[in-house]
Amino acid sequence: MRCPGPVCWALLLALGLCRAHRARPRHVLLILADDGGFESGAYNNSAIATPHLDALARRSLVFRNAFTSVSSCSPSRASLLTGLPQHQNGMYGLHQGVHHFSSFEGVRSLPLLLSRASVRTGIIGKKHVGPEAVFPFDFAHTEETDSVLQVGRNITRIRLLVREFLRTGDSRPFFLYVAFHDPHRCGHSQPQYGAFCEKFGNGESGMGRIPDWTPQVYDPQDVQVPYFVPDTPAARADLAAQYTTIGRMDQGIGLVLQELRAAGVLNDTLVIFTSDNGIPFPSGRTNLYWPGAAEPLLVSSPEHPSRWGQVSEAYVSLLDLTPTVLDWFSIPYPRYAIFGSKTVRLTGRSLLPALDAEPAWSTVFGSQSHHEATMFYPMRSVQRGALRLVHNLHFRMPFPIDQDLYVSPTFQDLLNRTAAGRPTRWYKDLHGYYYRERWELYDLRRDPRETQNLAADPRYAPALELLRAQLAKWQWETQDPWVCGPVLAPLPGRAWPASGTGTASSTGTPGGRSLMLASFPPLPGGV
Ligand SMILES: [Ca+2]
C-alpha cells in the first residue's frame, strides 16, 4: 500500500492506535453497598471519614438524582442485574428462606448476557437473587457458598477473593460485582456484633479481627442526623454504629481498587458504586419516598476524564445500569419475551453519554410489591424533575414494618415515645406513616421533606394527570400485572378520602389503546 503524505501516515497511526486500544479488553467493576446512603464525604457529609469513596468520586461523575426502582434488597438487586423492574423480572420480594421470591426463568440477566458474549463474570459478597440459571456467575463467593459476614464484611477476605479472581490469567474482559453486606443492620440476626455489625472483626474480645480494617469509632453527638430520622439519643447511637460499618466498607473499597491497580487493569475498567436501597430508618428502606429510593451513584470511566469530579443533576435509575454495562461492552440486548409474545424492552438507558456531556434526563420510575413475604404493600411511583408521585395501591392497609427496622433502637424508641406521649423528635407521626393516602404528590423544590401531599391541590391537577399517565404508560410497557389490580370500593356511608375519590378517566397506551381507569379517583380540580 502506498502512502502519499503525512496526513495519510497520521491516519494510519491513528488507526493503529485504535486497534491497539481495542486489543486491550475493557472491564467493569460494580461495587454495591447494602442499605447504604449518602453518608460519605463524596456527598458532603463532613461528619464521617470516607477517604476511598471520596477519592473514587474525584475520578467519577457524581450523580445527585439517582434512584433505585425498588427499595428492597433482592428486588433491587434483581432489577439492577436485569434492567427490568421487579414486577417484570418476577423478584417481588426477598429471595431467602422458604418463602423465597425468584425471578422468572425466562429472564435474560446481565451476567447471563455477558457470559454468552464471552465476558468473564464474578460475584463476591451478597447475591440474594435467583434462580441460579438466571443469575449465573463464573466465579462466585456469596452467602450460597460462604458466610455472608466473611464475603460481605471481612474486607481482608474480600481483598483476597478479588486477587484470586484477577489472577486466573484469563485474557477475556471481565465483569466483577463486589456486593458488600456493609452497612446493613444485623441487630436482629447477630446482635452480639452490634446493631450494624460494627464490632465484627474489630479485635475486641470475641469479635475476631479483620487484619486490613482500622475501625473508626464515632461519638453519637458528632453524627449528622438526616431530616427523616428522629433526632434522639437512640437514633444518634444507631447512626454512629452505621458510620463505623460504612468506614469498614470504605476501606474495603480502597482495597478492591488497589487490587485492580496492582493487576494493571484499573485503567481499563469502568467502576460503578451505588447502593441497593435506602438506609434502614423510618421513611428509608421499603419506602418509595426520597429517603427510600434515592441512592449514591458514582460512575468512573478511565476513558471519560473530562467530567471527573463533576456533579450531574440528571435523573437516573439503577435500571440504567444493565444498559450501561451492555453499552460499555457493545453487547446488544436480545429480542425475546417473558410473558406471551410481547418483546421485552429495557426502559432504562446507558449512562455513558452523561460522561461526556450533561443530559436532560428528567424522569425515573419505581415499583415495589413485597419486602418480606408478609410485607405486601404495592406501590408505583414516578419522579419527573422535582415532582414525585407515589401510588399506594392498597392504601387502606397499614404500611408494614420490616423486622430488622422494627427491632432497631431507633424504631423501638419511636414506638415507646409515641406510646408514652413523649416528643418523638421526628418529622412525621406513626399514624400517618402507617396509613397513607392513595395518591401522594410532592413538590421537592418547595417541600424537600415530602410532608405536604399535593394530590388534592387544584394547582397541581395538570401535573398529577401527566404523571399518572406517564406512570400507567410505563406500567403497560413493562407488563406490570398490578396495572389491572383490584381496587377497593368506598366503604358504605363513607366518602373517599380527599385524594382517593373517583370517577372515570382514561389515558393512552403506547399501542394507542385507551385504558379505562374507572377506579381512579377524580383528579383534584374537577378533572
Ligand atoms: Ca439492602
Automatic annotation (TrEMBL):
An example molecular function term from Gene Ontology annotations: N-sulfoglucosamine sulfohydrolase activity
Keywords per UniProt: Glycoprotein, Hydrolase, Signal
Signal peptide: 1-20
Annotated Pfam families: SGSH_C, Sulfatase
Cofactor: Ca(2+)
Residue span(s) of domain N-sulphoglucosamine sulphohydrolase C-terminal: 423-474
Region annotation Disordered: where it falls in the sequence: 498-527
CDD domains on file: SGSH
Xref: SUPFAM superfamilies: Alkaline phosphatase-like (SSF53649)
Any one GO BP annotation for this protein: glycosaminoglycan catabolic process
Start and end residues of each Sulfatase N-terminal domain: 27-330
Name this protein carries in UniProt: N-sulfoglucosamine sulfohydrolase
Species of origin: Myotis myotis
